[in-house]
Each structure stands twice: as structure tokens, then as C-alpha cells.
Design a protein that fits this description.
The chain is mainly alpha-helical and about 350 residues long. About 50% of the residues lie in helices and about 0% in strands. The protein has helices spanning about 5-25, 35-55, 80-90, 95-105, 115-120, 125-140, 160-175, 175-190, 230-245, 260-265, 275-285, 315-325, 330-335, 340-360, and strands at about 305, 310-315. A two-stranded antiparallel ribbon has the order 1-2. Helix 4 packs across helix 6.
Length: about 350
Amino acid sequence: MAPRPRWYHTLQSSKSEVLLAVDLYNRSGNERQLEAFIVHMNLGWTKLLQARTEGTGGDLYVRGERNWRKKHPEGGFLYKPLRELLNEQFAGTDPRLNNITFFLGLRNQIEHRHEAKVAALVAGRTQALLINYEQTLVEWFGQDEALGSELRFPLFVSAITGDAVEAVKALRTQVPQGVLDWVQDFDASLEPGLSADQRFDFRIYLIPHVGPKTEADAAMTFINDADLTDDQRAAVDQVRTIIRDKHVPVEDLNRFKVGEVVDQVAARISLPFNVHMHTQAWKAFKARPMTGAANPAATRHDFCVYNPTFEQYTYTPVWVEYLVRHLSNPEKYAEVKAWQPPAAVAAATSDREAKTAETGS
């Protein structure tokens, strides 16, 4: 029998790293599960991408100007880092890329004493990181390499009892402000819609099975929303409505009109802030669509909400805090003040180049 190719062994090593990551994350207690999970998932993704690159005839090595492989200071050759491999394999708008990149940055934000609180904050993204790995593994290497048969659904109590729900909520409120700010900035940098994609942040509803059990029934069955019929999806939407908090918010409660946002921000930063500057801000930070957009409701919901009844936008307290934090920085303030649409920037650049050419001739 011919020996296995090198990429095959890299692939098996990748799977081992991911299985270890899951084992470490699912153990009971609060001893650095999230950090260990991120470390080993990053290794798993790196090796998966290396196997994919090598298996398709790509180049794994960092090369110099003469296309020679660069040497590592401690011996051997330098391999391409995870970020570079990701950019080679995934489009910039791929939710998988953004999910992995999120955890690359998050690892540097974790303080051990707050790790359990951060884990509660990013639980959906943690699950997405694993699911994305499994789906990509099968997509690239086939069903025979899947991890599904080796993973078990963990036993847990979080979000099952009322007390557990409150405990999780309490943990989230204790996340350090620096981590919350970093997560908010990361989400704000994403294209609209990406932060709601299940491949970036995985969210589920658990509905207990009722009625007699058959031999074909599993203890837990995962149903993909994309596989549902219209009638089934309508039924699920009804369940979601029932599960949501029982209080129904008054329209635009705890949200602000533009003038109120301007007053609050102007009172808290040292630089001038008026309605024009607010317009520059929502454009620069992509808080809402441009005027006249086909879908005016396609906002960043944590910043801004469209009211179709009055055909106007209202803004959240999170948006106010975001503006105060960023526009207190003179450099960021100047950048927002000078913001222009990409088309206007391109036109101005073209005009300057034309004038330079005329002067030169």
C-alpha cells in the first residue's frame, strides 16, 4: 500500500487539535476553558488550511524577494501564518473568516479572572467556530473525515432553568468594559448582515420533545432553518415569539432622535458635534443605509432602528456610547469629519491625477 500523502497526516493532526479543544471547553469548572479552546481551535484551523493548501498544490512557505523559502530563526523554514492562509482560502465577506478572525483578536483581550464572563458573552460564536470547522472539513475532504461521530452533545444546565438563565445574564453584565468595547468595535467593522449570520454567531432555541418516543428518535435533533418549509418556518417563528421576553417594548422606547443624540454626545466630548457631524458619523460607521436605499430597515440594530410608521430612524444608547468613545479621539474625529462616499473619493483622485498630467505636459 502506497504511503499516505503528507497533507493527510496534517489533516489528522488538525482533527486531533479540534477534539482536544472541545474536550477542554466542555470540562466542568472555570479553569481557562475558553483560552484553551481558542488556542487549540486556532491550531486545528491552521492545520486544516495547511492540508487544504498542500493537497491542492499550493505553497505553505513564506518566501523572500527571490522566491526562496525564508528560514526560521530557530531552524527550519517559515510557514505562512493562519491569517495569510485564511485570506487565501476565504473571501473577505465569508462569515467563517470573520468568525475565526474574531477569536484571533479575542484571545489577546481575555483576563483569566474574567474568562467565564467572556465565555458567556461569546458562546454563540464559540459554537459557530466549531460548526464551521466541521462543515469546512466535510466540504474539502469528504464525509469520511467528519468529526460528528466522535463528538458528544455536552450535558449542561445553563439556559435550561430560570435560575441558570439569570446566572448567565449576570455573568455577561460583569464582562470588563474593555472587552465589551473591543467586541463592539469588531462587530461594527463587519459588513451589514454578517454579524447576524449563523456562521458567525450561532444561536438556537431548545424545544423539548413531547409524545411517545420511537427507536428512530435521537435525544436531540438539529433542524436547519434552511431545510424548513414555509409553514414549518412560520411555526418556528411563532415559537420564537413565545420564547422572547414577555414584556413587549413600546415602539422607540429607550431610543433617541437625532437631536437627542447630538445633545448627549456634544455634552460629553470636547470637539464640536452637531447634526452634520452626526450624519458624517452614521455614514462613516455604516450605522444605517443611505437615504433612498431600497431597504431602509437594513441597519446595525445595536446602533439604529428604522420606524416604518413615521419613516424615520431612532438611535440606541449603545450608539451614543460608541460615538463618545470614538469621537473623543481627535484623529478619529478628523477622519469622520472628512469622510466622503467612495465614489466621491475616486472622482477627486481622478481629477487630481488629470490636473497633474496636464501640468506635466
